[in-house]
Amino acid sequence: MDEVIAIIRKYLPIMVVHFAFIAILNIYIIDPKFISGELSIWDNWKTRFDSALAWADLTLELWYVLTFLLIAYLLIIQGLIAIILKLPVIRLRYRRFSNKTLIRKACKVLKTEPELSAIHQRLSDLVYDYRQEFLETNQTPPYKSLEDEQVVWLQSYGTLVLFLLVVGLWLFQGARYSISSISLLYLFFFLLAMTFIARFRWKKALQKTDIVVSYMALWEYEKQSPPSSNDLLQSEKVRFVLDQMDMMRARRRNPGWLLMTALKKIRYRKMWRITKMAIPRWMKIVHGPDWNLLTSLRTKYAQEEYTPPIALRADEFEGQFTSLLECTGAGLFLLVPKGSGLAPAVEKGGSSYCFAERRHGGHTIPISLTSRWDQPHLSGSYTNSFLLEIGPYPIEKIAEREFGPFSDALAITKPDLDEGTWPMVLETRYWPQQSPEASNDQPDMQYGIELPLNFGSTYLLRSEDVFRNKSVVAFQCYSVEGTSKVLVAWKFIWSFHDDEKEVSIPWWRFSAWKELFTGIREEIRTEKQRKTGS
């Protein structure tokens, strides 16, 4: 009995659409004068079927003949529908796990990195395992009714698309056997509207099923997994992932992104240049803070998970900076000259350190120890940061926001640094200059992308990463007696992020396309001028 009910559920949508389609053809579309004997379409088919049975020496009492023909017809239609639904234009492009509430729940339950792709993959695996449990145990899942609804709309959509193609072909061939071309055109638009409705309902049913099954899988996982400890970064993790969703949504609806996706499918030797210009550097999308930076701001030195090499461990110096290391966003590390061979296992041999990632190497907010003119120097990333030396002032007081005579020095490292001052500072390159904020009442201060290393001095590093996070890190350098190592105690002073989300203009606005093509023309004009040298 269950098998019969399953077959009925599978083919019922197709039969319902079939009978409705044939009824409309019989009443409004088919012209009776083109049917032999001017019979209705039902009587005509019945007569032909009786003739076929009589020719085959069969009778209607052999009902299994009807059953066989019906099943064969349904299987053929089912195969055609399966092929049609795989066509690029007709198939449904559905983005899984696009529900913000579901992603927020997944962030709290799953122990994964706050990356949208990682959460999607982990949630997909969890849903797959949850479904497999019911399949292996032959149990009826609690979401069975939702899957049945999804199948109904899928079969209805496929059948309507098939009939739409048939009517379109019929209309193209001159609409023979129809009352008029207008009636056939009405049927075409009616089927087109019903197809869009069925597609919409199928997508909604698929989305509903996906969300419900995902919640069930998360609840089962939460029951089996041990309770997680209170995560101080939980709210930041959720906000960070939701910002990623906003960024992806803004990219998908931007005309430059759509144009670039379309141009990737066209291949000729200069298309890559146009593809590159389709996403110009001025395209504004939703941006979010860097997760490593947020973690570093709220992490204490004792909570660090990264273990440096033995030669770069600063454990023996922790007692000298007890008060500093009790603060969040503070730390202690060692640097060695590049090529010293003391730490070959880490990036750049232990000559650089990233404040955002809290590890040797890295590129988000780095500081590097270099040698120039036989004198050690400190440098940032050379592109979006600079250093300010304020002299031998205790790092502990800087951590407490007590800047003393150097309070005016922070004007040059303020987050809202004037746009005209920023290029001027970056142009200093390797030649340090005296800070314009210095006066007779203050010690001399130097700033630049690279500064000489003076042991005992405190430096302020002003940096801006790719996510437009503007940060100021204070650090003080010490010499380790008898070695070439440099001990650095550091503390985040400020870290600002532009909370105003700049969403790109959507593709359905004319101004978005106008702005895009204006930018492309400017890029092409600039490239031509560069080649001609004018």
Q: How does the SSE layout of this entry go?
A:
Layout: H1 2-29, H2 41-55, H3 63-84, H4 100-109, H5 116-137, H6 144-172, H7 181-224, H8 234-252, H9 255-263, H10 271-278, H11 291-297, H12 322-325, E1 330-335, E2 352-354, E3 359-360, E4 366-372, E5 375-379, E6 385-391, H13 395-399, H14 421-426, E7 433-434, E8 446-448, E9 450-452, E10 458-464, E11 469-479, E12 486-497, H15 510-532
Helix pairs in contact: 1-6, 3-6, 4-7, 4-8, 5-7, 6-7, 9-10
Overview of this protein structure:
By secondary structure, the protein is α+β, with helices and mostly antiparallel strands. It is about 45% helix and about 15% strand. It has 15 helices and twelve strands. Strands 1-12-11-10-6-8-7 form a seven-stranded antiparallel beta sheet. Strands 3-2-4-5-9 form a five-stranded antiparallel beta sheet, with no helix packed on it. Strand 2 and strand 3 (about 360) form a beta hairpin. The longest helix is centred in the middle third of the chain and has 44 residues, at about 180-225. It is elongated and about 110 Å long. The termini are far apart. Residues about 420-440 have low confidence and may be disordered.
Quick structural summary:
47% of the residues lie in helices and 13% in strands. It contains 15 helices and twelve strands. The chain is elongated, with a radius of gyration of 35 Å.
Strand fraction band? 5-15%
**Regions with pLDDT < 50 over 5+ consecutive residues?**
422-442
The amount of helix comes to 40-55%
Query: In angstroms, what separates the terminal alpha carbons?
Result: 83 Å
**What composes the largest sheet?**
7 strands, antiparallel
Tell me, rounded to a whole number, the average pLDDT: 79
Which secondary-structure class do the elements indicate? Answer: alpha+beta
Number of helices: 15
Strand order of the largest sheet: 1-12-11-10-6-8-7
Number of strand elements: 12
Approximate shape? elongated
The succession of helices and strands, N to C, reads HHHHHHHHHHHHEEEEEEHHEEEEEEH
In angstroms, what is the radius of gyration? 35 Å
